Each structure stands twice: as C-alpha cells, then as structure tokens.
Amino acid sequence: MSDQPRPVLDPIDRLSEIIFGLLMALSFTGTMSTVTGGEGGVNAVLAAALGCNIAWGIVDGVMYVLTAAVERVRRRGFLDALRREPLDRAREMFLENLPDDVRRVASPKETEALLIRVRALASDPRHRAVTGHDVKAAFAIFLLVVTSTLPPSIPFLLIDDVALAMRVSNGVALVMLFAVGARLGQYMGRSPWPMAFAMTAIGGVLVAVTILFGG
Q: What residue segments make up the domains of the chain, in order of their start?
C-alpha cells in the first residue's frame, strides 16, 4: 500500500493562519480608519488592509521557512551529538530530550535499546536545511493570510460610506472567526462552541478598541 501524500500544512496550521489574517484585517482596517479619519474614503482603508496582509503573509511565510530550517539543523546536530558522545553522556542527552510522558513510562532497558538504534543510524549526506516542502508551505501560508482578508474587504467595494463599510466588514470578520474557531474546536476533539466564542470575543475586543479610539 502506497504512503499517503504529506499535506503541505496540517489543519491546525491552516486554521491558525486564517485566524491570523482575519485578526490582522480587523486591527488594520480599524487603525487606518482612525488615522485617515475618512480621508481617501473606502479605497484608502481597503488598500491599507490588503497591503498589510500581503506584507504579513510574506513575513509569516519567510518565518515558517526559517523556523523549519533552524529546527531541522538543530535536530541533525542533536543526532550527530548522540553518535559522537560517549554512551553515558549520550544516554543523559537522550533522556533530557524525551517528552515527559515518554520518559515516565519507558524502562531503562527500552531507552537504552532505542538509543543504540539511533546511534547506529547513518548520517544522511543529502541533508538540506530548507526543502521544497518548506517553500510550498510558505506559499500556502501567504495565500491563506491574504485570501482570508478578501471576504471582509467586500463591503469596502460595495459601500461608499467608510463608517458603514467598516461595521459590515467587522461583522463579516467576526462571523468568519466564529466559524473558524468552531472548526478548530472540532479538530481539538472538543465541543466547537467554546473556541468559536473565544475567537469571536478576541475579534470583538479588537473592534471595541478601534471604536473607542474613533475607528
């Protein structure tokens, strides 16, 4: 039986990036409406929101690649150290890096056997800090962050009044946060409603803050 293809991003990463994009849209549209005071109309606010999320989509994708590369190099260095260090020191390092739950249930004999197998693994000469999968994931993150701003942007295309467009946009974003939060709760294996209301509450706080400051 063939292996299942590895997803570019797991569900929690996808949902988290959508939430990030929505929160960024809420905060920046409100901030821009406060700063401009309506000057430039809906086009200025719309351009600011899209430009901000494009920039943050790029930053978020680059940070994903950087984090993956650092973790991959760190893991390779750890495996090399396990092979290089004397057995007693390697055993100590190995135990320190095991998850707490695994360390509690693993017997010394099982740990020793696993360590010996790890030390026997050959080093991969084709090791790369950055892989094609990392680049695909970074591009997927960019698309998720940017496209998550499109539904809240639609009111600015249809409504000329900045204040009214802002409130409708806020409403769309809050509904999306509720839906994504519910999906995240389901993925966690819990009731969807606490996470749905939590995400909506976070968005609501952002809206309230921008209204308080004149947004």
A: 11-212
